[in-house]
TrEMBL record:
<keyword id="KW-0349">Heme</keyword>
<keyword id="KW-1133">Transmembrane helix</keyword>
<dbReference type="Pfam" id="PF02167">
    <property type="entry name" value="Cytochrom_C1"/>
</dbReference>
<dbReference type="InterPro" id="IPR002326">
    <property type="entry name" value="Cyt_c1"/>
</dbReference>
<keyword id="KW-0479">Metal-binding</keyword>
<keyword id="KW-0472">Membrane</keyword>
<dbReference type="InterPro" id="IPR036909">
    <property type="entry name" value="Cyt_c-like_dom_sf"/>
</dbReference>
<protein>
    <recommendedName>
        <fullName>Cytochrome c1</fullName>
    </recommendedName>
</protein>
<feature type="domain" description="Cytochrome c">
    <location>
        <begin position="62"/>
        <end position="171"/>
    </location>
</feature>
<keyword id="KW-0812">Transmembrane</keyword>
<feature type="transmembrane region" description="Helical">
    <location>
        <begin position="257"/>
        <end position="275"/>
    </location>
</feature>
<dbReference type="InterPro" id="IPR009056">
    <property type="entry name" value="Cyt_c-like_dom"/>
</dbReference>
<keyword id="KW-0408">Iron</keyword>
C-alpha cells in the first residue's frame, strides 16, 4: 500500500515538473525576452598591461609618481583618498623632504577645531594625515556633483570588476551618444540618451555617468619625467597609481608568496625523503619474508600443482 501511495506522490511531482517545463518553454518561444540597453551597449574593460600584474609583478615607481600627479592635479578636486596617508608617498620614491612639501602644499586643507574658539577651522596637511576629502560631507559632495557622489578612490581598483583595466577604460571611454554605434551597428535608443548632467560612457554599468570626462586633452598635466602626457598615458598612469593605493604592500605579498612556495617545496622533498628513510627497513622485511619471497612462491606453486590449480 505504502509503495502505491509513494508511486502516486512521485508521479504527481514528475507531472508538475513536466507542466512547468513545457509552460516555460512555450513562453520562451512565444515571447522571447528583449535585450536590455545594458546588455546591448555595456562593454567589458579593455585589458591593459601593468608592471604590477602577475605573481612576479613589481610597481613601476616612475609610473606611480606620474599617476599620483594626475590624481593630485585632476581627480583630487572631486575624489578623496581617505585610506592613504601622505607619509606613504615615500613608497613611490619621493624623499622625506618632498613628501613634507607635498603635504604642506596640498590644495585642500584638513578640517580641525580652533583650540581658542572651538570653532570649526582648517589647517595645512601634515605628513601623518590621510588625504583630505574635497567636500565637508556627502551632502556637500552631492550638491556639487548634480546629486551624484564621487566615490573614495583608495580601494576603487579592488571594488570594481576589472580593477585598473576598468578605471583606464572608463577614463578613456566617453563617447558621443548621438553618433555612437555598438559592434552590431545599433544606435543608442532615445530612452537611454544621457539626461541633464549625465555623460554617455559604455564602460560604466549604467551607460550614463555623472562624472564629466576628467581627462580631456593631451598635456592636461606636465609630467616631471618628460613622458608625453597624452590622455591615454595619463589614464594608464592614474589607474596604476590606484592599484598602489588599494594595495600598497602588493610587492611584499608577492615576495612572501614566493618564499612560502619555495619553503613548501623544500618541506615536501624533505618529507618524501623522510618517508623513504623510515619505511626502507619495513619494505625490505616485506620483500624478504613476505609472499614475494622466492622460497615461499616455490612452495605455493608446488601445492597448486598438487591440487591441479592453474595460474
Ligand atoms: C568634477 C568632479 C570629478 C572629477 C574631477 C573626477 N571625478 Fe570621478 N567621479 C565623479 C562623480 C560625480 C562620480 C560618480 C558618478 C556616478 O555615480 O554617476 C565619479 C565616479 C568615478 C569613478 C567610479 C565609477 C563607478 O564605477 O562607480 C571612478 C573610478 C572615478 N570617478 C575616477 C576618477 C579619476 C581617476 C579621476 C581623475 C582622473 C576623476 N574621477 C575625476 C566626479 C569627478
Amino acid at each position: 500500500m505504502v509503495r502505491i501511495i509513494g508511486f502516486f506522490v512521485g508521479l504527481g511531482f514528475v507531472t508538475m515538473l513536466l507542466v512547468a517545463f513545457f509552460t516555460d518553454a512555450k513562453n520562451a518561444i512565444q515571447n522571447p525576452s528583449v535585450e536590455t540597453a545594458e546588455e546591448q551597449f555595456h562593454l567589458k574593460p579593455e585589458p591593459m598591461k601593468l608592471a604590477s600584474d602577475g605573481p612576479l609583478g613589481k610597481f613601476d615607481r616612475a609610473q606611480l609618481q606620474r599617476g599620483f600627479q594626475v590624481y593630485k592635479e585632476v581627480c583630487a578636486a572631486c575624489h578623496s583618498l581617505k585610506y592613504v596617508s601622505f607619509y606613504q608617498l615615500s613608497d613611490l620614491g619621493y624623499s622625506e623632504a618632498e613628501v613634507k612639501a607635498i603635504a604642506n602644499q596640498w590644495a585642500i586643507e584638513v578640517p580641525t577645531v580652533n583650540p581658542d574658539t572651538g570653532e570649526a577651522a582648517t589647517r595645512k596637511a601634515l605628513v601623518s594625515d590621510r588625504f583630505p576629502s574635497p567636500y565637508a560631507n556627502e551632502t556637500a559632495a552631492r550638491a556639487a556633483n548634480n546629486n551624484a557622489l564621487p566615490p573614495d578612490l583608495s580601494l576603487i581598483t579592488e571594488a570594481r570588476d576589472g580593477g585598473a583595466n576598468y578605471v583606464h577604460s572608463l577614463l578613456t571611454g566617453y563617447r558621443d551618444p548621438k553618433t555612437y554605434r555598438n559592434e552590431k551597428g545599433e544606435a543608442l535608443p532615445a530612452a537611454n540618451q544621457p539626461g541633464t548632467g549625465l555623460h554617455f560612457n559604455p564602460w560604466f554599468a549604467n551607460l550614463n555617468i555623472a562624472m564629466p570626462a576628467p581627462l580631456v586633452s593631451d598635456g592636461q598635466v606636465t609630467f616631471a619625467d618628460g613622458t608625453k602626457p597624452t590622455v591615454e598615458q595619463m589614464s594608464r598612469d592614474v589607474a596604476a597609481f590606484l592599484v598602489w593605493t588599494a594595495e600598497p604592500n602588493l610587492e611584499a605579498r608577492h615576495r612572501t608568496g614566493w618564499t612560502v612556495m619555495i619553503f613548501l617545496l623544500i618541506a615536501t622533498i624533505l618529507a618524501y625523503m623522510a618517508y623513504r628513510n623510515i619505511w626502507a627497513n619495513a619494505k625490505r622485511e616485506v620483500s624478504i619474508r613476505g609472499p614475494l619471497e622466492p622460497a615461499f612462491r616455490e612452495r605455493m606453486d608446488e601445492q597448486k600443482a598438487d591440487r591441479g590449480i592453474a595460474g
